[in-house]
């Protein structure tokens, strides 16, 4: 199925492994005053995110926390629709190793911020957390988790909108890709509805794994950023998940914005 190129360069980053990018801290800029800045920021963009759009967020983090390392792990439509968790976690091993080396360098006291965008980013976040847990026997040491326009429940039309957003802007490629992607998504939808079980689809499993204490510290602060105008993720789904996190004891920051992150701006 057509998808945006996953090796599109992210300004300021070097390619560590396929889909995994790294930005080194700046030794020349002082961070804004903060008592406990993150030492590592893990950014997990939306499906098919273009490097120049991702850079708007990574540049902001670099200015706010210039002493922090930044890892950026991208997601393709193929990741979401076709790749198994086992395959995705195998591809994430270079990121796990980099996180481990960072934790060791900080004597086990690294301050890690995880920022996941939309369903593609949140799925990659839980795959990373599970890969880390399987490698180390401990949960991913995330000090804070920002869930940006995620997680939702699976809604067919909204998922088709997400596929459309991830495709190239060239009209013929966009239309062809949307047709093929929607047909494939429909087949997957029927497969889970009728045979594998609705609760076992990628989005529902991602939603549950974000609350799993085996992978995440349930006391770590969470920020939910969302919009009532989001065409991809229903805001009610996000608020429902936020309520579950609150009941489990997580400190939660609820940010209702005017709009969602911009995937189209040049």
Record the SSE blueprint.
Elements: E1 14-17, E2 20-23, E3 40-44, H1 51-64, E4 69-73, H2 77-81, H3 85-91, H4 93-105, E5 112-117, H5 118-136, E6 142-148, H6 156-166, H7 171-196, H8 202-209, E7 222-227, H9 235-247, E8 252-257
Care to describe what's here?
- The chain has 266 residues and is an alpha/beta fold.
- Helix content is 44%, strand content 16%.
- It contains nine helices and eight strands.
- The protein has helices at 51-64, 77-81, 85-91, 93-105, 118-136, 156-166, 171-196, 202-209, 235-247; strands at residues 14-17, 20-23, 40-44, 69-73, 112-117, 142-148, 222-227, 252-257.
- An eight-stranded mixed sheet has the order 1-2-4-3-5-6-7-8, with helices on both faces.
- The longest helix has 26 residues, at 171-196.
Quick tags:
266 residues, disordered C terminus, 8-stranded mixed sheet, disordered N terminus
| Anisotropy-based shape | globular
Neighbour order of strands in the largest sheet:
1-2-4-3-5-6-7-8
Q: Tell me about the biggest sheet?
A: 8 strands, mixed
- Percent helix among the residues? 40-55%
Distance between the termini: 24 Å
> What's the alpha carbon Rg, rounded to whole Å?
18 Å
In N-to-C order, the SSE pattern is EEEHEHHHEHEHHHEHE
Specify the number of helices.
Answer: 9
Beta-strand residue fraction = 15-25%
Structural class: alpha/beta
Low-confidence stretches: 1-7, 262-266
**pLDDT averaged over residues:** 85
Number of strands: 8
Subcellular location: Endomembrane system; Nucleus membrane
InterPro entries: DUF829_TMEM53
Protein name: Indole-diterpene biosynthesis protein PaxU
Membrane topology: Single-pass membrane protein
């Amino acid at each position: 199925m057509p998808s945006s190129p996953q090796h599109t360069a992210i300004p300021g980053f070097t390619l560590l492994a396929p889909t995994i990018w790294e930005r080194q801290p700046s030794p020349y800029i002082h961070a804004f005053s903060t008592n406990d800045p993150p030492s590592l920021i893990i950014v997990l963009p939306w499906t098919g995110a273009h490097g120049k759009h991702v850079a708007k967020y990574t540049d902001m983090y670099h200015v706010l926390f210039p002493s922090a390392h930044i890892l950026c792990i991208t997601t393709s439509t193929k990741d979401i629709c076709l790749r198994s968790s086992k395959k995705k976690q195998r591809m994430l091993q270079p990121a796990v190793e980099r996180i481990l080396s960072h934790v060791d360098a900080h004597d086990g006291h690294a301050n890690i911020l995880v920022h996941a965008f939309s369903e593609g980013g949140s799925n990659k976040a839980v795959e990373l957390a599970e890969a880390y847990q399987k490698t180390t026997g401990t949960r991913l040491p995330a000090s804070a988790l920002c869930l940006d326009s995620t997680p939702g429940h699976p809604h067919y039309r909204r998922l088709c909108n997400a596929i459309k957003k991830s495709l190239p802007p060239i009209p013929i490629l966009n239309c062809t890709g949307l047709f093929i992607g929607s047909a494939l998504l429909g087949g997957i939808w029927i497969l889970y509805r009728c045979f594998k079980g609705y609760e076992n689809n990628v989005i529902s499993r991602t939603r549950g794994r974000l609350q799993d204490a085996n992978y995440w510290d349930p006391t770590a602060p969470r920020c939910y950023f969302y919009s009532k105008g989001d065409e991809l993720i229903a805001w009610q789904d996000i608020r429902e998940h936020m309520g579950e996190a609150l009941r489990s004891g997580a400190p939660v920051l609820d940010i209702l914005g005017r709009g969602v992150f911009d995937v189209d701006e040049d």
